[in-house]
Design goal:
Length: 248
């Protein structure tokens, strides 16, 4: 029910609305935006007048601020997202997340997943989370299919604002390998800012919408084999692992 806002509400009335809407939400207080949408009580009605922060109002109403959202770390969120994907046979949409939370109060609210930013970033994190877990192998494939679907077919006009892809590449010079990145969409030749004693050859490249993050992932994975900067002394198994990935 939207509150009539022709007359300013006092603190007691707002606290009552926080309690009422929380009771209707399985005992979990709403965030300020959803509270405003459901009650008509806007931020300017209370911020700087009754409370400095929404968490202060929630606390005064008798709740722990963000009680549900703070209960999950990133790994737990990814695990729950993966299990829901297994349950419905696809990567969940925002609507799927809301429906799951509505049916199961222990499942995080859809807004909790917004900490990942875009869905593309969430799927990328999910893909990495699934690595080395045989039970989630199918979810890893869904992530790869999602990445492939976002790649514009050859011949379409480029729209960098919508498809901002780059590459993480592996090149070899002598017995050492370099893992680097290029943010230039569509480019398959990489300019090195250093002089190499031996000619460098490209071994493989991974297309991604997050070159920085994926480069960091491989650097961390091979940290124990780092020799200097972005150069590593890799074995056949390491190279095979890198070459198995076309998209991340």
């Amino acid at each position: 029910m939207i509150v009539n806002q022709r007359n300013p509400m006092n603190k007691s009335e707002i606290l009552q609305e926080i309690q009422r809407t929380a009771a209707a939400n399985d005992g979990v207080p709403l965030g300020s935006r959803r509270f405003a949408a459901e009650t008509g009580i806007k931020e300017y009605d209370w911020k700087g007048k009754l409370w400095a922060r929404w968490s202060d109002a929630v606390r005064e109403a008798g709740f722990a601020p963000n009680q549900l959202q703070s209960a999950f770390d990133k790994a737990e969120l990814l695990e729950k997202y993966a299990k829901l994907a297994q349950e419905i046979g696809r990567l969940p949409s925002a609507a799927d997340l809301r429906l799951k939370h509505h049916r199961d109060a222990s499942f995080p609210d859809q807004k909790v997943f917004e900490r990942f930013g875009s869905k593309a970033t969430l799927v990328q994190e999910l893909f990495l989370h699934c690595q080395g877990q045989p039970s989630l192998e199918g979810i890893g494939r869904l992530c790869e299919e999602y990445a492939q679907a976002r790649i514009r077919p050859t011949g379409d006009e480029a729209r960098p604002d919508e498809y901002n892809f780059g590459f993480v590449y592996l090149i070899k010079s002598g017995r050492f390998y370099k893992i680097g990145r290029s943010n230039a969409v569509g480019r398959r030749e990489y300019e090195l800012a250093i002089q190499l004693p031996e000619q460098a050859t490209k071994v493989h490249e991974i297309r991604t919408d997050d070159p920085n993050g994926i480069e960091a992932y491989w650097h961390k994975r091979f940290e124990g084999k780092r020799k200097n900067g972005e150069w590593f002394e890799l074995g056949a198994g390491d190279i095979a692992a890198f070459k198995r990935r076309r998209f991340m």
